Structures are given as C-alpha cells and as structure tokens.
C-alpha cells in the first residue's frame, strides 16, 4: 500500500558514534597540551631560578664562613702573638667538626701546608681574603682575616657537591606538581570544550535521522554559541525546506491528477460507448488539450530537475533582443486577440544586443507571456518590450513582460520565483498554473548569467524584467 502523500517519513536510525582512538580525542589532546605547557613552564622557571638559587646558596655559605672567620680572628688574635695554646687547638677542633678547615698564619708562615701561596701572601701583607679555589683538588670557599704582625686566620669549607646539584633535586616536586596541575586543567578544559561539541554532534545525528525539531542551547563562549546558532539555523532551514517540498509535491500531484482525471473520464466514456460519433471529435480535442497540459507540466518538472546539473545544455551566442521580441510578438498577438486581450510590443528602432541562448530566452519569454495570459481578464493589456540596459552597446539588454491583471502584492514579489509559492497562495482564488513556470524562468535566466526581477507594472498588473549580459567579444573590442 502506498504511503499517503505528505505523511511524515519514518526516522532513520542514527549511525553509531565512532569509537574514540587514543591520542585523537579532544580530551587526550587537551591534556597533552596542558601538560606540555606545564612542563615547559617548570623548565623555564628552573633555567631562570637555578642560577639564582646557586648564587644565593654560595652567598649564604660565604657570609656564614666570613662571620666565623671574623669570630675566630677576634678569639685567636691575642693568642697568636704568644704561641699556640690549648684554646687554639680546641677552636680548631670545633671548626673541623663543622666541616671547616682552619689555618693559622704566624709571621707569614702557615701552621700547616695546603694553603695557596697567594692567600698566604695577602694575609702576610695585612689584607683580608674572600675567594674560592681548589684545595686538595676540591672546590673550596676561602675566607681569611689578617692580624697585625703578619698573623692571620684562614677558614676553608670544601663543597664536594656542586651547588646546582643541591638545588636540582628540589625541582622534582614542582615538576610533578606542574604535571598534575596540567592533567587536571586539561581534563577540566577538555570536558568544558567537549560538552557543547558532543551536544552539537548528537543534534547533527538526530537531524540526519529526520528529527527537525532538535535545537542546541546557545551558551558561551562565543565560538560555541556561533556553532549552536549555525546548527539551529540549519535545523530551521531544513524544516522549512522540507515543508516547502511537501507543499510543492502536494500541489504538483494535484496538477497531475487534474488532466489525468479528465483523460481517464473521456477514455472510459469512449470505451463504454457513452460518447457517440458526433461527440467523439470534441472529446478527442479535450483529451489532446489535457495531454498537452500534462506534457508541459512533466517537461517543466524535468527542466527544473536538470537545471542545476553541469550538463544542462546552453548555447549562448550574440542575439538581437529586438528581433527576438518581434518574432515572439507575431506569435502571441494572435493568441491574445483570440481571447480579447490587447497585445502590444515595444521594440526600439535599432538593435538590442545581448549574449544569451536564443532558444532558452524564448522559452523564458513564452513562459512569462503564458502566465500573464492566464491571469489577465479580457480587455486588460499585455506588453512585451525590449530595450538596451544602458547607454552604450556593451551594457546588455532588457526584456520586459507587463500586464494589466490582478498583479502581485509586495509580499508576493519576495517569493515570486519560489517553486509553487504563488500557486499555494492563490489556488482557489484566481487562475493559477502549476507553480513551476516562474521558478523555471528564474533558473534559466540565472544559468544564462542574467538577472530577473518581479515588480508592479504601470498597466496595473505585474511586471517581470529580464536583464541579460552583453556580448563579451563586443565588450573587448569596444574597450
């Protein structure tokens, strides 16, 4: 059993979401990026902070050693002048217990070997010493204080481990903390960013399944709000487009059914012998007229279907629109006179050059004239005009069809070239066609590189203006 026309289509099942692959999800990438940023931040901080920490540690050690050297000099000053005493030995042992080597200098002679000569010389000259150097192959801080008579006290503290090696282990904790913060921030950021994206993806899947009522909440940030607006606009556009398509199919099916009903009725009457020989000719003419109407409708549908195809046949050539309008006027003057409609052609004395397909543009003109003849009452005029689009020969040409019929409202002008729009509005109100003629005319004109517009005619009805491009060869030679 056929599905009723216009009935809602069953929704297609949504495709299952793709399985997330490691390293390809937004969450994993956000975590990796934030961890990398945290790691780089810690390393940059370390590059800047380690030298400062090393210098600070050395400065503290040197200041502490200098303070001890001053204290030792004050304590040993009276004793160095009289000879080594038990107090000196006790002080030296206390300093050794703190990891400090003590050297006593009497009259320019160190109490034991190991001091650099330059240090002994400076002490003998009565100058203090604050330096660092190598003692027994070890990096050492040296602080010396000179006393009168070439005496002095020199303290040395070796640094078996370089300062940066003492500072570097303390970086592990900030590094781990930075990585943990990066993972946490990445997860939170990814969840915040992924939530509206997943919501939009779910909405898109529902749209693909046929649900046109789906909408996505518009939330900050601006990029997410733009995505939601775009998706909601797409859903609304799809719903409107499908609504127009359903209305169009309904109107086309009605237009197809009307001639088919007439043809079937006369065919049954002929088959049953209801129509005699005297009425057979009239019945045949009616069937022929309805068949021709059906053929035009099917041809329009096929032309509309092929209009957007790349292989739609077009053969643009230089055309004189004045001659084309004159030829059309000879054909349509008789048809209009037969139904009591005055027909007038407005053609300039010279030529109206344009570049178009003469067969297709004649199809457009015939369609516009047929629409006008359908709606104008007897006695109302129809005008077919041609004129140049501008002052020069390279401006192109204009063809215009005007009538004295009921015309179009301003709202009608906005949808005049949409398929079935005017048919839907005026069906049952006044004579209407299939609703395809104006849409087909607009599509043909645009494919030919021209423009078409609807407006109000001075004769009181509707005016349709077709503007066609100039001959490109003629344009180049004129320039």
Tell me what the structure shows.
With 479 residues, this protein is α+β, with helices and mostly antiparallel strands. It has helices at residues 26-80, 86-97, 117-124, 163-167, 172-208, 222-272, 277-307, 321-338, 358-375, 410-414, 421-426, 437-447, 472-478; strands at residues 100-106, 109-110, 129-135, 138-147, 151-158, 317-320, 343-346, 353-356, 382-388, 397-403, 451-456, 462-468. Strands 2-1-5-4-3 form a five-stranded antiparallel sheet, sandwiched between helices. Mean pLDDT is 78; it is low at 1-15.
List the main descriptive attributes of the protein structure presented here:
alpha+beta; disordered N terminus
- Mean residue pLDDT: 78
End-to-end CA span: 66 Å
**Envelope shape:** rod-shaped
Stretches with pLDDT under 50, minimum 5 residues = 1-15
The proportion of residues in beta strands is 15-25%
Helix and strand content put the structural class at alpha+beta
Radius of gyration: 50 Å
By DSSP (H or I, 4+ residues per run), the number of helices equals 13
Oligomer: single chain
Strand line-up across the major sheet:
2-1-5-4-3
Helical proportion, percent range: 55-70%
Could you give the count of β-strands? 12
Order of helices and strands: HHEEHEEEHHHHEHEEHEEHHHEEH
Main sheet characteristics: 5 strands, antiparallel
């Amino acid at each position: 059993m056929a599905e009723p026309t216009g009935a809602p289509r069953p929704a297609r099942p949504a495709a299952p979401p793709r399985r997330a692959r490691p390293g390809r999800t937004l969450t994993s990438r956000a975590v990796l990026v934030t961890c990398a940023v945290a790691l780089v931040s810690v390393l940059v901080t370390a590059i800047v902070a380690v030298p400062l920490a090393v210098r600070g540690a050395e400065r503290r050690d040197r200041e502490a050693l200098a303070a001890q050297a001053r204290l030792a000099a004050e304590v040993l000053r009276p004793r160095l002048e009289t000879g080594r005493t038990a107090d000196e030995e006790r002080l030296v042992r206390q300093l050794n217990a703190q990891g400090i080597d003590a050297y006593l200098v009497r009259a320019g002679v160190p109490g034991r070997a190991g001091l650099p000569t330059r240090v002994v010389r400076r002490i003998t000259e009565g100058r203090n010493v604050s330096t660092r150097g190598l003692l027994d192959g070890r990096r050492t801080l040296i602080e010396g204080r000179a006393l009168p008579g070439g005496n002095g006290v020199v303290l040395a503290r070796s640094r078996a481990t370089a300062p940066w090696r003492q500072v570097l282990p303390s970086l592990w904790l900030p590094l781990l903390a930075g990585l943990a913060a990066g993972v946490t921030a990445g997860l939170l950021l990814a969840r915040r960013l992924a939530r509206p994206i997943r919501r939009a993806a779910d909405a898109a899947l529902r749209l693909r399944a046929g649900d046109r009522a789906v909408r996505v909440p518009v939330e900050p940030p601006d990029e997410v709000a733009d995505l939601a607006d775009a998706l909601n606009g797409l859903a609304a556009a799809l719903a409107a487009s499908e609504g127009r398509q359903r209305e169009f199919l309904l109107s086309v099916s009605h237009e197809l059914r009307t001639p088919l009903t007439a043809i079937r009725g006369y065919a049954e009457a002929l088959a049953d012998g209801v129509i005699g020989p005297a009425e057979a000719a009239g019945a045949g003419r009616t069937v022929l007229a309805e068949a021709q109407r059906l053929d035009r409708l099917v041809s329009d549908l096929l032309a509309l279907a092929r209009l957007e195809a790349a292989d739609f046949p077009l053969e643009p050539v230089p055309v004189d629109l004045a001659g084309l309008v004159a030829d059309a006027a000879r054909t349509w003057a008789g048809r209009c006179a037969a139904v009591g409609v005055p027909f007038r052609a407005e053609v300039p004395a010279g030529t109206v050059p344009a570049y178009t397909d003469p067969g297709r543009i004649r199809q457009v003109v015939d369609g516009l004239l047929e629409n006008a003849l359908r709606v104008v009452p007897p006695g109302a005029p129809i005008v077919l005009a041609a004129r140049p689009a501008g002052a020069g020969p390279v401006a192109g040409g204009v063809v215009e069809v005007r009538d004295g019929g009921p015309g179009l409202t301003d709202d009608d002008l906005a949808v005049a070239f949409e398929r079935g729009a005017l048919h839907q509005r005026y069906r049952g109100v006044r004579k209407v066609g299939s609703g395809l003629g104006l849409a087909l005319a607009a599509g043909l004109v645009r494919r030919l590189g021209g423009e078409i517009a609807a407006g109000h005619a001075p004769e009181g009805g509707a005016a349709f203006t077709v503007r066609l491009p100039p001959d490109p060869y003629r344009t180049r030679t004129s320039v």
